Amino acid sequence: MEKLSLSKIGRNAKWAVIGAIKGTGDTVESTIEATRDVMMTALDGVAQVATAAEKAVGQIVAGAVQAASEAGADIGVAIKSAVKGAVKGASEVGADVGKTAVAAVDGAVKAAGEIGADTAKAIEDASSGAIEAAEEIGSDTAEAVRNVLKTAVKGKE
Questions:
Q1: d(CA 86, CA 10)
Q2: How far apart are the C-alpha atoms of 13 and 62, rounded to whole Å?
Q3: Quick check: 4 and 54 in contact, CB under 8 A?
Q4: Fewer beta carbons within 10 Å, N or C terminal of the chain?
C-alpha cells in the first residue's frame, strides 16, 4: 500500500481518526466526529472560511481515509463518515456546504485511488456521506448538495 502525501492538516486528521477509532472501536461515529472537529479547528478564526474549507477538506478527508486503511477499518465506511463529518463541520463554521461537499468527494476519490481502493465505490460512498450530512442540515441544503454533486461528479464515474 502506497502512503498518501498528507499536509499537516491531513496528518492531524489521520491521527485524530486513528485515536478515535482505537479509543471507541466505532469507525462510523469516531470518523464523523474526528473529521468534523479537525475541520472546525482548522477553520476557527479564519476570515475567508469558504476558501479555507475548500483547501483543507480534501486533506482532512484523505487523512481520515489513510487512518482507516492503516487501522484496518472498512474504507467505504470511513470515506462516507469522513465526508459527512467534513460537511457538517463546514456548515457549523459558515462555509459553503456545496463547495465543501465537492472538495470532500474529490479528496476521498483521490485518497481511495492512492491506496488502491475502488474509486467508483469511493464516489458513491463519499456522495452518500455528503448528502446525509446535508439532509441533517436541512432539506434546501440537501437539494443543493445533490444538484452540485450531480454536476461536479458526473465526469469522475
A1: 12
A2: 8
A3: no
A4: C
Buried b / exposed e along 30-68 (16+ C-beta atoms within 10 A): bbbbbbbbbbbbbbeeeeebbebbbebbbbbbbbbbbbb
Q: In terms of Cα–Cα distance, which of 13, 148, 138 is closest to 86?
A: 13
DSSP state of 96: -
The total of other beta-carbon atoms located within 10 Å of residue 5's CB is 9
Cell representation of residue 30: 469516531
- Long-range CB pairs of 40-43 (<8 Å, 24+ gap) are 40/89, 40/92, 40/93, 42/9, 42/12, 43/89, 43/90, 43/93, 43/95
CA–CA separation, 127 vs 117, rounded Å? 16
- For the segment 94-126, what is each residue's pLDDT rounded down to a tens digit? 788 999 999 999 999 999 999 999 999 999 999
Cα 152 to Cα 79: distance, rounded to the nearest angstrom: 18
Tracing cell 500500500 back to the chain, one arrives at 1
